[in-house]
Structure formats: C-alpha cells, structure tokens
Amino acid sequence: MSDQVIIAGGGIGGLAAALTLHQIGVPCVVVEASREMRPLGVGINLQPNAVRELGDLGITEVDLDRVGLPSKEWALVGLNGNDIYAEPRGKLAGYRWPQYSVHRGRFHMLLHDKVVERLGANAVQLGRRVTAYRKTADGVSVTLEHADGGSSQLGGSLLIGADGIHSAIRAQMHPNQPPIHWGGAVMWRGTTLGKPIRTGASFVGLGTHKHRVVFYPISHPDPATGLSMINWIAEVTMDNADGWKQAGWFRPVELKEFAHHFDGWVWDWLDVPQLLRDSDCAYENPMIDRDPISTWQDGPVLLIGDAAHAMYPTGSNGGSQAIMDARELGAAMVAHGATPAALAAFDQKLCGPISQLILRNRGAGPFGLLNLVDERCGGTFDNIDDVIPPTERTTFMAGYKAAAGFAIDQLNASPPTIAPGAKVKEVVGV
C-alpha cells in the first residue's frame, strides 16, 4: 500500500490541495477525469482570505495579475440605475490582501502548472476518474475508470474527494442523498470585450432578486484600446415545479435563446443588450447546489470543494472556499499527521459552518439586499436610505462576510493557517 494521498479531481480544490500537501511534505497524486487540461469557464472571484492562502503557497499578485485583476468595488444597483449598496473591496477596504476577479480557466491552468512544476509531470494523471473506493487495513483503494475504456486500482493512505458536484465519492459515502437541488434560477454566462465602468474594477449587480445582470472585468485594460474582458451573468428566476428539463446542467447557447429577457435594459452608463450581443461566447446553466450532509468523512476518505459543499454562486465564494478547504486540510495534517484523525478534525471544524453557508447562499447570499428592495418598494426608488437605512445595509453585508470567513478585522488579525515551514510529522497510533 502506498503512503501517498490520492486526490480525486484536478479542479481548483484538488490542485490547491496538491500544492498544500507538497508544501507540508505529504506525497500525493491527482487523478483527473479530463483527457487534457484546458482553460475552461468564465469569471470567478477570489476573496481576500483565499488570496492570502495563495500567497502563502507562493502564488503572488504578479501571478494573479496574469489571469485577472484586483477588484476595487462591489455594488448593487436598482432597476432605475440608482445605487442600493456600494463598498470598496480588497486592500481599498482595509484588508491586508486584495480580492481578485480572474478568468477561471486561466487561474485553473496557473494552479495546474504550479503543481507540475513543483511535484513533477506525473503528479496529475489525466483521463482517470475515481468511480469507487474501498477502505483497507492501512488506507484506501480506489477504482479508476480510464478515458480509453480500461480500468485499474490505485492504493493510498488517504483519499481526498475533490470531484465536484457530481462526485462519485460523495454518492458512495451518502448513497441516499437527495438529487441536485435547483431553485428556479437560470444563469447565462459569457465574456465581452468592453470598457470597464465606475472604478474600472467594479463588480456590479443590477436589477432585482429574480431578474438581474452581474458583470465585472477579469483582465487589466489593454493599453492600446482601454478594453478589458468583461465577465457577465444574466439571470432569471422561473417556475421550477417541473424540475430542470434540459439533458445536462451546462451547455453553450445562442444569444437569441435568452437575450430578450433584457430588452430595454439601457442606461447612459450601460447598454445590457449590446453587452450581450458583443459576447464571444454564452453558456447556460441553472443555479444549483446540494443539500448539506451530516459529515464529509468516512474513515480515510474526505470530501472537499464542491463535492462537499456545492453552493449557489451568489456570494462569489465557491472557488475561495475550495482553496480554504485545501489549506485547512493541510493545517489539520500538520496537527494530526496525514491520518484519518486529521480528516476528522477538518470535518468537525468546517462541515457545520459551511453547511450553513450553503443555506445562506440559497437565500440569495449578499444579493439578499435585492430581496429587501423588492419587498419594500418593488425595486424602484429615488433614495435607497428611505428604503433600507445605511446601518441595516452595512449590518447585512457584515453578516455574510463573517459567515463566509472574510470578516475584515478577524481575517487581518488571524495567524497563518499553516505556519511558514511547517511539515507533517508521523503520528503513531492514531
């Protein structure tokens, strides 16, 4: 039996876990179902807590500037173009670390390249999907389904399930789990070259709780044209009584399938129909998550990332939490060794609080302010202070930041998750 840790899934969580385990001296291998790594996806946000952890992994702001840019502002705007809430983000808000808006695929490739550079070319085995696991006397054995049709067995001391919302490892651990949950919201996502507005690095949510557009730049402006890659999400909530009718959860779509929902969304500072028309791609996916489960651990097996806690993207926190999972797992191993006891400590610390975050995001997360506006004035107002007082808005946002782990005072004052130079020591008899 090998003493290596098997990481199932080469997404953000799996690759961050590999980098972390390498940092603390734990051998590991990543098995990934895709035949090749490609820069897929559109934009995501990395909150300051995750950026701090990336820095502790040796991934610098110079690295992140190649795949995105620091966010300066987070803003909600009502249907008549008036601000509901706006605040500075990252270092401008007083954090010791920036918040980054990045191209998900390019960031993913950055992590992959760092893993290969540090752990070696064989550290990520492509075209291999973990379909089942079996606990053994000294660890775990997994069944691998190969992309070419074959199969094999692989043994390790521990198994980290970072295999996403459709996790086979989670399905075996919790065979009676409910199906994927869809609350009725459908998102269409894409990117457009355009001129950034407001601060030039603003995350803007515009509209109502059930009918909105979110957009933000994910690249520095081109020096010659002043244009950035603008990530946009167009969202409509509809009746979900009959469930999701499409064959899959993610598909490319034509603009004509959804653009009509945003006809007339034109202001002197933004033309939403034009933003959509100028896009170089568009994808449809429903806003989905999974109901919380009682534990993420089964002896030498642990779930992290979306396999553990797939959540609505309303808080821009999914990728950040996957990174935090990897770092908290590393800290638990420093304390308890690369053992099931470390997995149990991780599960005890995070499963309950992050399960509550799933439900908080299901209730609209920070976009919950839009619910209040809808309830109190139907979405149209002249002065937001007459609808939601400033103290109520600030308190609402502070509550989400605390739940998501990036409350400013707490984060700035906290020690490193993993102390510099920390390594795993063998723990006997655990």
Summarize this entry quickly.
With 430 residues, this protein is of the alpha+beta class. The protein contains twelve helices and 22 strands.
Primary descriptors:
FAD/NAD(P)-binding domain; 30% helix; alpha+beta; globular; eight-stranded mixed β-sheet; six-stranded mixed β-sheet; 430 residues
| Average pLDDT for all residues | 91
Helix percentage range: 25-40%
Structural class by helix and strand composition: alpha+beta
Secondary structure tally: strands: 22
Q: Tell me the name of the CATH homologous superfamily of the domain at 5-49 and 105-178 and 293-364.
A: FAD/NAD(P)-binding domain
- Continuous helix count: 12
What is the radius of gyration?
22 Å
What does this entry look like structurally?
- A hairpin with a 5-residue loop joins β5 and β6.
- The mean pLDDT is 91.
- This protein has 430 residues and is an alpha+beta fold.
- The protein has helices at residues 12-23, 48-56, 61-65, 104-119, 168-173, 272-277, 306-309, 318-336, 340-362, 368-377, 390-404, 408-413, and strands at residues 5-8, 28-32, 43-46, 68-70, 73-77, 83-88, 100-103, 124-126, 128-136, 139-146, 151-156, 158-161, 181-194, 202-208, 211-217, 228-237, 251-252, 266-267, 270-271, 283-289, 297-298, 301-303.
- The strands form five sheets. Strands 6-5-14-15-16-13-20-17 form an eight-stranded mixed sheet.
- Helix content is 30%, strand content 27%.
- It is built from twelve helices and 22 strands.
